[in-house]
Amino acid sequence: MTKSILITGVGGQGILLAGDIIAQTAMESGYDVKKSEIHGMAQRGGSVVSAVRYGDKVYSPLISKGEADIILAFEKLEALRVLPYLKRSGEYIVNDYEFPPLSVVMDEEQYPDNTTQRLKEVAGNVSVVKGIELAKKTGNIRTTNMVLVGALATRLGFRGEKCLSVIEKRVPRKTLEANRTAFLLGFST
Questions:
Q1: Would you say domain 3-187 falls under CATH 2.30.39.10?
Q2: DSSP helix/strand/coil, 73
Q3: Using CB atoms within 10 A of its CB, is residue 32 exposed (0-12), middle (13-18) or buried (19+)?
Q4: In the chain, which end has fewer C-beta atoms inside a 10 angstrom radius, N or C?
Q5: Mean per-residue pLDDT for 108-133?
Q6: pTM of this prediction?
Q7: DSSP H or E segment with residue 148
Q8: What count of other Cβ atoms lies within 10 Å of the Cβ of residue 150?
Q9: What percent of the chain has pLDDT over 90?
Q10: Mean pLDDT of the chain
Q11: 84-97 burial string, b = 16+ CB within 10 Å, else e?
Q12: What is the edge-to-edge ordering of all strands in the sheet holding 3-10?
């Protein structure tokens, strides 16, 4: 059986690193893994999507509409954008964070109201994680991605120690303790 995870957000939130950590953890847990990413205007706050698929044998990294088992959204509007990709029995993990796109900042459009409620009406199984609030406890809000990786890891059944060993290999030494703490805060949500 193949598990399909879609990770979405905006440039600069650590989506690609989160996808790498999940993919590496799955690989080190003995699964065949495929990963893809889309990060067009990521440096300018644009959409970023990372897809991770793992299982006994995975033939493609691509996730079609209606196939994602879990969507991990680092930002609420981005969660709405990828809604068609979630399967009926799928789960959303959404960071309680809004990053208004340029069109909203320029007063050309409005940020949608009640994004979480809209997700719940369509998807049903939605968990909201206060990622930034938890990351602040580490002293570094840039660890929000590790909080969210921790929340995702519990749903995937990965052992915390396995994820932490991958995190240790991937993050700079000077931020290791904050990232470790952030992961554990998310893992316990």
A1: no
A2: strand
A3: middle
A4: N
A5: 90
A6: 0.93
A7: helix 144-156
A8: 28
A9: 75
A10: 92
A11: ebbbeebbbbbbeb
A12: 32-38, 47-55, 3-10, 68-73, 86-95, 126-129
Cα 81 from Cα 73, distance rounded (Å) = 10
Lowest-confidence pick of 5-14, 45-54, 98-107, 119-128: 98-107
Of the candidates 134, 136, 139, the one whose C-alpha atom is nearest the C-alpha of residue 187 is 134
Helix (H, G, I), strand (E, B) or coil at 188: coil
Nearest to 20 by CA among 181, 121, 163, 187: 163
107 to 78, 104, 119: CA distances (angstroms): 19, 5, 24
Query: Residue 1, class by beta-carbon neighbours within 10 Å (0-12 exposed, 13-18 middle, 19+ buried)?
Result: exposed
Residue 88 — φ and ψ, nearest 5°? Answer: -55, -40
As given in the structure block, the two tokens for residue 162 are 């396995």
Give the start-to-end residue ranges of the domains of the chain: 3-187
Locate 158 and state its tokens: 């990965």
> Which three-class secondary structure state does DSSP give residue 120?
helix
- CA–CA gap between residue 124 and residue 121 (Å, rounded): 6
- The pLDDT confidence band at residue 43, using thresholds 50, 70 and 90, is low
Residue that is written with structure tokens 């990372």 in the block: 50
